Amino acid sequence: MILNKDTAKKTAELLLQIKAIKLSPENPFTWASGWQSPIYCDNRVSLSFPPVRIYIKEQMAKIVEEEFGKPDAIAGVATGAIAIGVLIAQELGVPFVYVRPEPKKHGRKNQIEGHLESGQNVVVIEDLISTGKSSLAAVDALKEAGASVKGMVAIFSYGFDVASENFENHNVNLKTLSNYEILLEQALDSQYISQKELSLLRDWRSNPGEWKP
Helix crossing, 195-206 with 180-189: angle to 10°? Predict the structure, then answer.
């Protein structure tokens, strides 16, 4: 759920400008899942552009405080959200930890890196939400460690129905700076895509697992 359409549109515009989000309906990308996709999103590109990085940091920190209150710690989901999570924690002046997809095989075998005490209020930071599976696995790990997870804030969401169901089933409150529908609006307004490409991109989102170009 986005909170402010102006912020969502500006975020989409910035991500398009720096090519963090690439739209290629005629020559689709292949995701790790095997899905064919006319869109590819790599929000880590924003870290290389200080004005964009600062804007995202400030807007996400604002959402964290307004929606969940100042937490005891920020938790980034490895690896994509580690850097932006650190920036948000710095902005809020709170500790930072990050969550691996699974415990390390060696050393202390940590899944959560950093100092986290049982009972602390935590807000999770993500860069991108697709199905939500890996994001929610991080939430589960934090809860198992005794954290009180207040919610999650992400830069961008594809808005898949399966993600909404997953977050609802986990009772996790998700807020995002921008989403797929706002992105398409912005891309059309800025003539980044045509009306024909808009229809194709919407068709993909309705059934991404079966879509073919």
Answer: 170
